[in-house]
Amino acid sequence: MRLLAYILFLMYRSHTKLATLVIPIFLIFLLVFSAWYINALGNAAPLEKEENKPTTVQEQKSNSPQVQNLQGDFNETGNITNFDAALGETTNEWRLVYEKPGQPAVTTPLVFDSDSRCDLGSGLKPCSLVALENGMRVTIEGLDNVNEVIVLQLTAVDENESSKTDTVSWDEAQELITSCKVSQVTQDHDRNVALDLVDGSRKYTIEPNIDDIFLLIDDAIDTCGQPRMATE
What we know:
The protein is of the alpha+beta class. It has 3 domains: 2-51, no CATH class; 69-157, CATH 2.40.50.320; 163-231, Signal recognition particle alu RNA binding heterodimer, srp9/1 (2-Layer Sandwich). It has helices at residues 2-13, 17-51, 57-63, 65-68, 159-165, 170-178, 212-224; strands spanning 74-84, 89-100, 103-111, 117-119, 124-126, 137-145, 148-156, 182-187, 192-197, 202-206, 228-231. The strands form 2 sheets. It has a 5-stranded mixed beta barrel. The protein has a 4-stranded mixed beta sheet with strand order 10-9-8-11, with helices on one face. A hairpin with a 4-residue loop joins strand 4 and strand 5 (124-126). The radius of gyration is 35 Å and the shape is elongated.
């Protein structure tokens, strides 16, 4: 390009008729080439952005500033379900149902990806390799991504083990009920009682006589309202 410009310059200095013809053509060529080059650069930038756009949850976790700032900020214990009441059938979409103070049934969709790990009692494994059960009680640790949680770890809660560490006396159970800390009560025919508390935890006790727990609830109903009750 420089050589061609130098030749044109010499032709111009020599005042030849050929120079008066070639120089305008060369200038037109430069204008057309410059316009094409600028347009090509403008089209290349959006293409690069589209190619780098994250398309999976894994890429979103790596590239999204919002998710990067939410490392492991979700930790709740509740029950998982994949039953869709509207459809009347189970689906492939799992949700966690848990409780918060003043919110007895919070439902959050769960997102599992290649980094999600599940421990159902035999150690951590990729969640894609384990069989989750509807209604299973679990603890979910993950990333709160606005209207869903990206699961980092799911750990099954051993109800039998919980009953050993979370057993309370009958007097303590009465105190929990009269202080309005119970959201749900379940008893069985062997007088075993499970108390689901408003903070999401569960306590266990044994009532002196069958249905004694329901009598306690009746006495506290004016102060605390009526929690959910069930007999197994």
